[in-house]
Design goal:
By secondary structure, the chain is of the alpha+beta class. The chain contains 16 helices and 18 strands. The chain folds into three domains: about 15-140, no CATH class; about 165-250, Phosphorylase Kinase, domain 1; about 260-444, Alpha-Beta Complex (Aminoglycoside 3'-phosphotransferase, Chain: A, domain 2), CATH 3.90.1200. About 35% of the residues lie in helices and about 15% in strands.
Length: about 450
């Protein structure tokens, strides 16, 4: 294994010296070894990106490095690509450092013929463009970091995830385009041209979410009444021998806007809410795919509801009522999207154009679907909810309000915060009263 020599100088100008043989056949192996040595020596997680060039006298290698804690991070090791270049000429062996964001070549502090030097960090975009010029090969792309706080801090970071998105694009023969970051969700999701690339990490039930979302796209492909983006490709960045394969999905990009950016207003908004009701009714009538049917989530959500709701901010006197209140909740027997929020419903101002993010799909009671729609997508607008229910053909009977609050109690995400902005929960004596205050007007 290659050894890493710590720099003698401090600060951003310090260089990490990685001894390496310059033999063509050993270069890739030695660089991978150097990467592992960097991890062992500094606590950094590092991966290797080989960039073969057309000139036999030049080999460039990029290192993506970061640490769990910024305080523990060496001065020159950042969450950005580090680029080195080793030039060779007949009869001589020298090392030089090239910053690919400029045309200048800098000589390192020590020019030992047996060392490669890592220079300062730079942005991903320049590296990407340069790599394209050299017929980039990413067969040695390393594992992304999936531990907190790094994962959350870099979830929407194009500089960090750009290499992986471009690799997916290369494998799936997607047209070359700039990588863009949409809203930040649970999994790294990026736009590239007319496509959306979504990577699934090991956390947040990544394997189940990938399988469920893929199955839902395949199920909905022949059902135009439920507008989901077309599935273009599905795969994994790494083989089964890796600690995590990082499965991905590529879907068609929606060029319309989500409700979060363009709220539903006026008669057009009411019409779109009704269209959503029709689509959700069609969804709820489908037989769930095995990948969704096998997810036994609702029973767990119901048993853990008191602790979860207390954490969400439901007052203690209402939390105490939850176990008994959920005792007669409707059975979980319906295929639901489970997270139709303002980020996931798209429209063009006149019509609904798509519903995205199907990875949370589960089998639940139909009221479960109402929580995200009512309190996030519709922002508690009773006009929009009434239009949705009409479009769906939902019968608002005497049990509607109770069943809807039961769904709020079992919902895995926090709806209590939004509800607390509508009703002073401290003054609500029972959960049934809460249901009447939130949904009672729908029956009139």
């Amino acid at each position: 294994m290659a050894q890493v020599t710590k720099p003698n100088a401090a600060g951003d100008e310090a260089l990490w010296s990685i001894p390496n043989r310059l033999d063509d056949q050993l270069l890739k192996v030695d660089v991978v070894g150097a990467c592992r040595a960097l991890r062992a020596s500094t606590g950094c997680a590092a991966c290797v990106l080989g960039i073969p060039t057309r000139r036999p006298t030049m080999v460039s290698v990029g290192f993506f490095c970061s640490t769990p804690s910024p305080a523990a991070r060496p001065a020159v090791v950042r969450s950005r690509p580090l680029v080195l270049a080793c030039s060779r000429a007949t009869g001589t062996r020298t090392s030089s450092v090239t910053d690919m964001s400029s045309t200048q070549t800098r000589r390192p502090a020590s020019t030992s013929s047996s060392a490669l030097e890592i220079t300062a960090p730079m942005g991903w975009w320049n590296l990407w463009r340069k790599a394209q010029e050299h017929e980039q090969n990413r067969d040695v792309l390393g594992q992304p970091i999936a531990v907190q706080p790094h994962y959350g801090e870099h979830l929407g970071d194009v500089d960090y995830w750009g290499a992986y998105v471009v690799e997916v694009a290369r494998r799936e023969d997607l047209p070359e385009s700039q990588v863009e970051a949409p809203f930040v969700g649970t999994f790294p999701t990026f736009l590239i041209g007319e496509c959306v690339v979504k990577l699934f990490g090991p956390g947040f039930d990544g394997a189940e979410s990938w399988a469920a979302e893929r199955a839902m796209h395949e199920l909905l492909a022949s059902r135009p009444g439920i507008p989901a983006p077309a599935l273009i490709a599905a795969g994994a960045l790494f083989d089964d021998e890796q600690e995590w394969t990082w499965p991905y999905l590529v879907t068609r990009r929606l060029r319309s806007q989500p409700v979060r950016e363009r709220p539903l207003t006026g008669t057009a908004g009411v019409s779109i809410a009704g269209q959503l009701g029709e689509a959700v009714a069609a969804l709820h009538a489908l037989v769930p795919p095995d990948e969704v049917d096998d997810r036994d989530l609702v029973s767990h959500l119901r048993s853990e509801a008191p602790a979860r709701l207390a954490e969400f901010g439901l007052p203690a006197h209402l939390v105490e009522q939850v176990p008994e209140f959920l005792g007669d909740a409707p059975p979980a027997a319906t295929l639901v999207h489970a997270d139709i929020t303002a980020d996931h419903l798209f429209h063009d101002g006149q019509a609904m154009t798509g519903i995205i993010d199907w990875g949370d799909a589960i089998v639940a009671d139909p009221y479960y679907e109402l929580v995200a729609i009512a309190f996030d997508c519709f922002d508690a607008d009773s006009r929009l909810l009434a239009a949705f229910l009409r479009g769906y053909g939902w019968v608002v009977d005497a049990d509607f309000a109770r069943n809807a609050i039961q769904a709020v109690c079992e919902f895995q995400f926090n709806a209590i915060e939004r509800i607390a902005a509508i009703v002073d929960l401290r003054l609500v004596p029972t959960l049934d009263v809460l249901g009447d205050r939130l949904f009672g007007s729908l029956g009139t």
